[in-house]
Amino acid sequence: MSDSKTFVACVDPDDPTRWMELVAVGNSHRIEYLRRDYVQPPGARADGVKRAWARWLKWVGRGLYGSPILWLFHVLLPAPMDGRLLVLFVCIAVLFYASINVYVVLAVIAWRAQKMGRPRLRPPHEDREPGLSRATESVAEEAPPPAVGSLVRARGKVAPLSIRSLAEGAVIRDVWLTDGKLGRLTNAVAFAVCAEGQLPVVLSFHSAPSVYAPVAARELTNVLPQLTERARKLWSIIVSEPTAREADVLAIQPGDEVEVIGVVGELIDDVRQFSVDGQDLSLTVEEGGAPGSPYRHDSRRAGVVMVSSVAQPVDVVLRSELASRKLSV
Question: How many CB atoms within 10 Å of residue 34?
Answer without folding.
Answer: 21
